[in-house]
């Protein structure tokens, strides 16, 4: 899905999503993924060239995509969407038809807005579920990342089990369309 999707949160503003351009967005994304608040992204020591190379690789991959999320027209978050049977979770879980994997990262800011990150994850999930073939979103946050685990729970994710990945111990979690709608009260669109 590479079309821009629009989500609106009355209190927060308007969110849109566009494909990430590895060359044009590398500097922006480098600042995000190397920031101390992005420690769980595991790119803290990455050079600008490393970041561009990583996102060129994702752009070329048939089962992985990256997007820039905009808040009121300004870049504010990063989304990675992937086929978990081919990327990240291949061989590590029991896939179901309609599964899609997701990573998201909110840009660091000196002026945080209360509720912003929850509004972002809600917009990300609505973006993913806008594809009618998506039945369930799966994620694999680090077992020590309590902040994202709380956000995941707030939008309907349930922890399935702990899994060992090469780079981390993770909490395999999943959220169906129905769980998402129940958790967000259907106010995601």
From TrEMBL:
Pathways per UniProt: Siderophore biosynthesis; mycobactin biosynthesis
This protein's UniProt keywords: Acyltransferase, Transferase
Domain of life the protein comes from: Bacteria
Keyword Transport: no
Keyword Cell inner membrane among record annotations: no
Entry GO MF terms: acyltransferase activity
Positions of the Acyltransferase MbtK/IucB-like conserved domain: 18-65
Gene3D superfamilies: 3.40.630.30
One of the Pfam families matching this protein, by short name: Acetyltransf_8
Reported function: Acyltransferase required for the direct transfer of medium- to long-chain fatty acyl moieties from a carrier protein (MbtL) on to the epsilon-amino group of lysine residue in the mycobactin core.
PANTHER family: LYSINE N-ACYLTRANSFERASE C17G9.06C-RELATED
Name of the protein this chain belongs to: Lysine N-acyltransferase MbtK
Organism: Streptomyces rubiginosohelvolus
